[in-house]
Amino acid sequence: MYTIELQAEELQMLRSALGCYLQAFGHNEADLVRAAKALLLKLPEELQTKAG
Predict the structure, then answer these.
(1) Which of 11, 12, 33, 48 is the most exposed place for a label (fewest CB within 10 A)?
(2) Within a 10 A sphere around the Cβ of 9, how many other Cβ atoms?
(3) Residues 6 or more apart in contact with residue 6 via CB below 8 angstroms
(4) How many Å apart are CA 18 and CA 37, to the nearest integer?
(5) End-to-end CA distance of the chain
């Protein structure tokens, strides 16, 4: 198992990148779609930043 620490902006970028990755695949890549969706489920929800 690996652990990485991400800033809120990095997490947002990762979620966005995985979303774009998912959109690039068609029906012939079902295994990749499942793997990307499983990875997205492992990521924490986007955090709300507190306004000062």
Answers:
(1) 48
(2) 9
(3) 14
(4) 8
(5) 36
- Cα 5 from Cα 47, distance rounded (Å): 14
For residue 50 the two structure tokens come to 């507190």
Residue spans of alpha helices (H) in the chain: 8-23, 30-42
Q: Which of 7, 16, 10 is nearest to 40 (CA)?
A: 16
The answer on pLDDT for 52 being more than 90 is no
Give dist(CA 48, CA 3) in Å, integer: 22
Six-digit token string for 47: 């955090």
pTM: 0.69
Tokens of 22: 């998912």
